[in-house]
């Protein structure tokens, strides 16, 4: 204690500042809180910046960019009848841009993997919703081209799809043929599973076609060498054919198509021909034979019909599509082996939508190729 003041040693040096008030208690915690607040503020700023950048992302480009020079069949100077549009390879083909927190996560950690086609086997089209059966993944892809949305359909959790091999649209529903489960699965057009149907008569279903006028579903059964008729998607009401080579008989049917002005078209694979039936199941035309000449078949795998009644046959050994009139006269062929536009590697299913777009499951090229039928009047 300073005898003259009685203050200096106690009030300042030992108690007030050096040991208690500033050095050990007051200053260090305040600095920590300040630094923490700075870090939080910085994180918020970064998140807002990322969100702003995401919001300013450029809109996705067209799904099918223009093809220049055009790819068409027949080649000039003939008038084109088939024009190449483009191809789909899976989810990435939609050009989906992540939004919201998904975009922030993508910016910080990289984009999530997108689902690609493995072995596309069949296609069904409802407006701009494209369904692709994939035997490699044991699932069906749903690509909504208009909404730029993707979904993978696996069926019922307790009884999922195994080998989806055929598709059609019937009565506002997606019908899926599963060869692995000998079953038919029904989904709504948003991709939600509704029910599974099985019938004792149907043991190896491979393809389906829907007759809207009679509200009947045709099912091709490879093991039974027949086509079954299912009324209103409920009960088997008839059978067409058995094993043989006569008209109306089959040897491993592999594909079906229905068109009101043509009837039922069946790819009779191991008889190397196509058969056409009327609404009563009576043969109207039989064409094709085994061989390598124009109009012959090696392994017809898919059939489809355009709005003018032309019959398209995908041959996955010839790697091409042949086009016939309803009487079986060859009109045109396009495609060859390869991986370039208009070339194929084991093409499987084929379908033609209301716009006369031709969708081909180019199985071993892991894509769906899209073409346009160009009508003579157009």
Characterise the protein shown here:
By secondary structure, the chain is an alpha+beta fold. The protein has helices at 8-55, 100-109, and strands at 72-73, 82-88, 120-126, 129-134, 139-144, 149-153, 155-156, 159-160, 164-170, 173-178, 183-188, 193-197, 205-211, 216-221, 226-231, 235-240, 253-259, 263-268, 273-277, 283-287, 300-305, 311-315, 320-324, 330-334, 347-352, 357-362, 367-373. It has two domains: 1-56; 72-96 and 107-373, 6 Propeller (Neuraminidase), CATH 2.120.10.30. It contains two helices and 27 strands. The strands form seven sheets. Strands 1-2-27-26-25 form a five-stranded antiparallel sheet, with no helix packed on it. A hairpin with a 4-residue loop joins strand 4 (129-134) and strand 5. Helix 1 (8-55) packs across helix 2 (100-109). It is globular and about 95 Å long. The termini are far apart. 35% of the residues are buried.
Number of strands: 27
What is the percentage of strand-forming residues?
A: 35-45%
Mean pLDDT over the full residue set? 88
Uncertain segments are 1-27
- Quickly give the CATH architecture of the largest domain: 6 Propeller
The CATH homologous superfamily of the largest domain is named TolB, C-terminal domain
Give the SSE string.
Answer: HEEHEEEEEEEEEEEEEEEEEEEEEEEEE
Q: Order of strands side by side in the largest beta sheet? A: 1-2-27-26-25
CATH topology of the largest domain: Neuraminidase
Number of domains: 2
Radius of gyration from CA coordinates: 32 Å
Outline type: globular
Sheet having the most strands: 5 strands, antiparallel
């Amino acid at each position: 204690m300073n005898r003259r003041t009685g203050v200096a040693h106690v009030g300042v040096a030992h108690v007030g500042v050096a040991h208690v008030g500033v050095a050990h208690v007051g200053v260090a915690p305040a600095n920590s809180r300040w630094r923490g607040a700075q870090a939080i503020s910085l994180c918020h700023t970064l998140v807002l910046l990322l969100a702003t950048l995401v919001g300013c992302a450029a809109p996705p480009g067209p799904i099918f960019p223009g093809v220049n020079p055009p790819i068409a069949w027949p080649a000039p100077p003939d008038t084109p009848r088939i024009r190449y549009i483009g191809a789909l390879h899976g989810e990435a083909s939609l050009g989906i841009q992540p939004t919201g927190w998904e975009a922030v996560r993508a910016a910080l950690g990289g984009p999530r993997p997108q689902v690609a086609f493995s072995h596309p086997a069949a296609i069904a089209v409802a407006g701009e919703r494209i369904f692709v059966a994939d035997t490699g993944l044991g699932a069906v892809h749903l690509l909504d081209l208009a909404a730029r949305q993707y979904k993978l359909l696996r069926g019922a959790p307790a009884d999922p799809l195994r080998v989806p091999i055929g598709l059609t649209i019937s009565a506002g529903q997606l019908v899926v043929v599963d060869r692995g489960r000998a079953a038919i699965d029904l989904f709504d057009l948003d991709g939600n599973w509704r029910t599974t149907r099985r019938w004792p008569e149907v043991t190896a279903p491979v393809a389906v076609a829907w007759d809207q006028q009679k509200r009947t579903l045709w099912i091709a059964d490879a093991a039974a060498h027949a086509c079954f008729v299912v009324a209103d998607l409920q009960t088997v009401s008839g059978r067409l054919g058995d094993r043989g080579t006569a008209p109306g008989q089959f040897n491993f049917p592999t594909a079906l198509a229905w068109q009101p002005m043509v009837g039922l078209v069946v790819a009779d694979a191991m008889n190397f021909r196509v058969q056409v039936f009327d609404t009563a199941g009576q043969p109207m035309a039989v064409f094709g034979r085994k061989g390598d000449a124009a109009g012959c078949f090696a392994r017809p795998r898919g059939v489809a019909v355009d709005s003018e009644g032309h019959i398209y046959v995908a041959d996955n050994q010839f790697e091409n599509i042949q086009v016939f009139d309803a009487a079986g006269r060859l009109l045109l062929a396009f495609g060859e082996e390869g991986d370039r536009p208009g070339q194929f590697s084991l093409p499987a299913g084929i379908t033609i939508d209301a716009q006369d777009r031709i969708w081909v499951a180019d199985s071993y090229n892991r894509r769906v190729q899209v073409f346009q039928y160009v009508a003579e009047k157009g």
